[in-house]
Design brief:
The complex is a heterodimer of chains A (296) and B (111).
Chain A lengths: L1 H4 L4 H12 L15 H4 L2 H31 L3 H27 L7 H8 L2 H15 L3 H27 L4 H31 L4 H25 L1 H13 L8 E2 L2 E2 L5 H22 L12
Antiparallel strand pairs in A: 1-2
Helix pairs in contact in A: 4-5, 4-7, 4-8, 5-9, 7-8, 7-10, 8-9, 8-10, 8-12, 10-12
Chain B lengths: L49 E3 L11 E3 L5 E4 L9 E4 L4 E7 L5 E5 L2
Antiparallel strand pairs in B: 1-3, 2-3, 4-5, 5-6
Classes of the chains: A mainly alpha (296), B mainly beta (111).
């Protein structure tokens, strides 16, 4: 295990991230890129983009609070070092998505009120389950909740958003590409660090599995609210693109063509993909996936 | 981009190991030249050993496996065989190559 932990260093993070895929970027994308006029000039789409971006900010603020809180709970310095780099990653995510909010026309002084107004209440509950574990200094539950459940969800959501953005919004797609690269490290740490700790603490399994079930329930409720609430806007935007002979391009994703999928189809493939990933990841580290209740 | 070559190429990422058969009863491994595909998530020296999985329509060569943790394609100069140890630098996971019942190869994470 000592050898495994030795790979977590600030130097490694510097070489991979700031000196790697973030080199020469500004706010996570190539300099000079901007939000497309199709978003900025269409009030309904602009507001939908603001609402979506707020969910990303809320999720990343929770991740920032969790990863920074877990630094003190970590039982070894290699884990503290990794979580320190993850803390900076999460702070960067908060910053670049907040910048996107301002690029979409939200004034700096209105950012916090906009985040408060648009954040989905089920996403808040999702975060509260995790942050309670972190506040209690529970390293194992905190890392499972943060690096496997939250980051696993973010990884898949970002992939879906990148697929739907790469043709029509390269700025947002590039921003997402950098966050996906960060998430690779975060889920890798979650699986690798907890895989060995769970084997040493099997008595913790039941409680951690309950937490996963609870977080998954709030996640599904969030997806349901977002896709149901945004269904008419998504459908109108797809019809508008089709009328102009445009589409989101080659958008096959986990067996679904996102360029023609209904909002209900998109919600279904997203939920199925995230839950399937949870099940696989948890199984690999010796935890039994808990099927969440279906939100009413 | 990813074709067989005759020359022996021995460079591998850290924590990776592809042993030759001890009794010599297996044919030599196919060798492949690797080109940088634009993957920027690891230091330059190691970029050719990884690429982004392109999703539907993409396929793996005999010298490629997918990291089950982060979904990046891990590549080698030599074809993979069961028992090979591979390292996914983007997510820092260590794996062993195994053969699935359908005959295909996959990587299993070792903790």
């Amino acid at each position: 295990m000592a050898d495994f932990l030795s790979q977590y260093s600030i130097q490694r993070w510097l070489e991979m991230c700031p000196q790697g895929y973030l080199e020469d970027t500004v706010n996570g994308h190539d300099p000079g890129l901007s939000e497309p006029e199709e978003i900025l000039g269409n009030e309904e789409i602009r507001e939908a983009s603001i609402a979506l971006t707020v969910q990303l900010i809320a999720g990343e603020r929770a991740a920032l609070a969790a990863s920074s809180g877990l630094v003190n709970a970590a039982p070894d310095y290699a884990s503290k070092t990794f979580l320190a780099t993850q803390t900076l990653d999460e702070a960067r995510h908060v910053e670049i998505f907040t910048q996107r909010l301002m690029d979409l026309g939200v004034k700096k002084e209105d950012v916090n009120s906009t985040v408060a107004d648009y954040t989905n209440p089920n996403l808040v509950k999702f975060a509260e389950v995790l942050l309670e574990k972190v506040s209690n200094g529970d390293f194992i539950a905190g890392v499972v909740g943060q690096n496997i459940v939250l980051e696993g969800m973010a990884f898949t959501v970002f992939e879906l958003l990148q697929t739907t953005s790469k043709e029509l919004n390269p700025k947002f797609a590039q921003t997402l590409a950098g966050t996906i690269a960060d998430e690779r490290r975060h889920v890798g740490f979650g699986e690798n660090r907890i895989g060995s700790l769970i084997a040493q603490h099997p008595e913790r399994k039941a409680e951690i599995e309950r937490m996963q079930g609870e977080m998954a329930y709030h996640m599904l409720a969030t997806f349901s609210d977002i896709f149901t609430g945004g269904a008419s806007t998504m459908t109108r935007e797809r019809d508008r693109l089709a009328a102009q002979g445009q589409s989101i391009g080659d958008a096959g994703w986990h067996g679904t063509d996102l360029s023609t999928a209904t909002p209900a189809d998109m919600e279904a493939v997203l939920a199925d993909t995230v839950l399937s990933e949870f099940k696989t990841r948890l199984g690999r580290i010796g935890l039994e996936y808990q099927t969440p209740k279906v939100p009413a | 981009m990813n074709g067989p070559v005759d020359a022996a190429i021995d460079e591998v990422p850290p924590s990776s190991f592809q042993p030759e058969s001890a009794d010599g009863d297996e044919p030599p491994r196919q060798r492949f030249e690797l080109e940088d595909t634009g993957f920027k998530e690891v230091p330059k020296r190691w970029r050719k050993f990884y690429r982004i999985w392109q999703g539907e329509g993409d396929s793996l060569g005999p010298n490629e496996v997918i990291c089950p943790v982060c979904k990046v394609v891990i590549r080698s100069h030599r074809e993979f065989r069961p028992g090979d140890r591979v390292y996914c630098m983007p997510c820092m996971s260590r794996m062993v190559v195994v053969r699935r019942p359908d005959g295909s190869l996959e990587a299993e994470v070792t903790y």
